[in-house]
Design goal:
By secondary structure, the protein is α+β, with helices and mostly antiparallel strands. It is built from 2 helices and 8 strands. Belongs to the cysteine dioxygenase family.
């Protein structure tokens, strides 16, 4: 009997390959997708030569696909370019800033995202990502399952929050305008 311990190990515990799971060819968990994003971000040769900047709109390129996921490269070349307020339908995702800085806006507030920053989100997560700086920005987006829709949302502002009295007053004014033939589109 061993005086140090009542437990003795027979054989080499490292020689149990039959107990280990084989490495996966493609990511399947949120942690693995985040790891894939970090791996792609670290290897600039995979994406840097593909980046384009467009002053008129954001640029995007599907970098790769795998079973149940897509990897997208996006750039915002000028200040103010952004995604608009949206969600990703039934897809979850990982957003990683590769170069520059972006601002993420949600109902909970605003977050500055610098190169290397990573955000993970679930289906139904509503946000807007904008380049608020004077420098171009590049980001990597992994969607799982692959992105099939990107519903846009309207920003809530004071003008959108109309009271019942305001609505009744506006309806009354429109009805009056309709009877005089001066009403057009009231939007």
């Amino acid at each position: 009997m061993n005086s140090d311990s009542d437990l003795q190990i027979a054989g080499d515990i490292l020689e149990v390959p039959h107990l280990l799971q084989p490495p996966r060819e493609h990511p399947a968990t949120v942690a693995e997708f985040a790891g894939l994003a970090r791996t792609v971000a670290a290897d600039r040769s995979q994406w840097e030569h593909l980046v384009r900047y467009d002053a008129a709109s954001r640029w995007y390129h599907r970098l790769r696909t795998g079973p149940g996921y897509e990897v997208w490269l996006l750039s915002s070349g000028v200040p103010g370019q952004g995604s608009g307020l949206h969600d990703h339908g039934r897809s979850s995702g990982v957003l990683t800033v590769l170069d520059g800085a972006l601002t993420e806006r949600t109902e909970r507030g605003t977050r500055a995202l610098r190169a290397g920053a990573q955000r993970v989100f679930a289906p139904g997560y509503v946000h807007e990502v904008v380049n608020d700086t004077l420098e171009p920005a590049v980001s990597l987006h992994i969607y799982f399952p692959g992105l099939t829709e990107m519903p846009m949302h309207h920003k809530a502002c004071a003008a959108d929050r109309v009271t019942t009295a305001d609505t009744a007053h506006t309806a009354s004014a429109l009805n009056t305008a309709d009877t005089t033939g001066t009403a057009g589109t009231a939007k």
